[in-house]
Each structure stands twice: as structure tokens, then as C-alpha cells.
Amino acid sequence: AFKNFIEENKEALESKDYTPFEKQIAKYENLFEELDNLPNNASIGWLKIDSRPIKQELNILCGKWKSTFTDYLQNEVKIVLDDLYSFMDKVNKGLDQEVVEGDVATLKQVISFIREVKIRVEESTSTGMFEPLHATADLLKTHNSPLEETEMQRLENAPLLWHALHQKALNKREKISPLQDQEAKKMKDQVVIFNDEVKKFRDEFMENPAFYWKSGVRKAYRAIDQWDKKVTVIEEKAQASCHLQELFELTVVQYRDLSDSR
Questions:
Q1: Cys-Cys crosslink for 209: which of 5, 38, 89, 215, Cβ 3.0 to 4.6 Å?
Q2: Cα gap 5→24, rounded to integer Å
Q3: How far apart are CA 154 and CA 84, in angstroms?
Q4: Strand partners, 44
């Protein structure tokens, strides 16, 4: 039943809307109250009924169901905070690396870390990075299922730590900007060279025997197998080139000739 609930509310959960959870939690709390208001004893003619055992069992069942929903939300907050703190620790260490002229490998690593921070900032602009977490914490507290003290402390500290990391990334970007611009110019030249390589590849590909019926079926299939391997190799090179273009904030070339060849 709970798996079905998660599946039915998948869109809400992806947008961090936990209203369906709050309704379910409130439903079981209302059931608690209804059970408490029921009499512990009843008499039907000569028959006396003690309803306390069944009330106790129903209360336990309601408690388990309420916990199913609150535990899920508590775990969601913990998972998000674990991921965030792990990310901040990794990026902090990465940004501490000293970048010197000629050390392209370290430069790429640092730019990559700066880019990851930028992406996280952009992804959180619509809902905010911490607002959904605080809203979930408030929801749990309202229903007497607060986060553990350690998790609340991490949640309270996270915005300041994130702001410091974001500022550190901006400062690092400004510091390495001359080296990044220098490498970007080299990258543009490499892109031009690779574009020529792709064009030459496409011209050779169009001479593929598989395009000519006179080649015969067997020769055509052999050619297809050979060119499939060649296309895969140059596609991997194109993918690496696109990644670097994106990393150095260049206009990413789509390499339409390769997709047409594939």
C-alpha cells in the first residue's frame, strides 16, 4: 500500500511537495482521537464487552502507519543533507588546489568543481535549496515527530556553509580566470582541427561500399561492421570535445555529421 502511495504521488515528491504525506499523517492522528473517544466497555443485554484490547491493537496499527510516513520524511531530509555535506566537503577540498600555469589537469578539475556549484545553484532557484527541508522539518515537528537533534543542527548550519562555499567558488573562478581564458583559446583551435577531422571522416564515410549495390551483400555488411567501430571511436572523441567545450564555457559544437553517420 505504501509503495502504491509513493508511485501515485511521484510528481509531488519530485517537486518536494509533501502535502500528500501531511494528509496521511493527519488521517492517522484523527483515527487516534476517534479511538480514544470510543468507550472502553459496552453492554449488550447480558453480554459485557471489553473493547480495550482491540482499541490498543488499533492504536498500535495507527502508530505504525503514521511512523511509516514520518520515517520516510525524516530519511528524505537525512539523505539530502548527507549528499549536500558530502558534496561541500568534496568541493571545498577541490577548490583548495593550487592552479599554476601549465597544469591543465588541475585547472580542469577546479573548473569542474566551480561548475558543479553553479549547477546546484541554478537547480535550486525555483524552490530554493533549503526551504523544502525547513518545511519538512516544520511539518514533522507539528505532528510530534521532529528530526533528531543532530539532523536539525546540520540543517541549521547548512545555509551558512553553502554560502561560504558558493563565495569560495566565485573567488576561485576570478583567480583562475586568466588561466582559463588562456586554455579556452587553445581549446577553440583544437575544436577547429577536430571539425576538419569530422568533415574528412564524413567524406570517407560517404564512400562506404554499403551505399553501393554493386559492392554485394557480404562486402556491404563487412563495411558496416568496420564503420560502426570507426564511428564509435570518433563519437567518443566528439563527446570528450563537447565536455571540454562546456567546461570552458565555449559554444558547444553538435557534430551533426557524426549523428547522420550513426
A1: 215
A2: 10
A3: 10
A4: 47
Q: How many helices (H) and strands (E) does the chain have?
A: 9, 2
Cell of 22: 501531511
Q: How far does Cα 80 stand from its chain's mean position? A: 10
DSSP code of residue 162: H
Residue with cell 562506404: 208
Contacts of 6 (CB under 8 A, 6+ apart): 13
Which residues on adjacent β-strands are paired with residue 41?
50
63-121: pLDDT as tens digits: 999 999 999 999 999 999 999 999 999 999 999 999 999 899 999 999 999 999 999 99
C-alpha grid cell for residue 215? 559492392
Burial of 11-20, coded b for 16+ CB within 10 Å and e otherwise, reads eeeeeeebee
Distance (Å, rounded) from C-alpha 2 to C-alpha 18?
Answer: 14
What pTM was computed for the model? 0.80
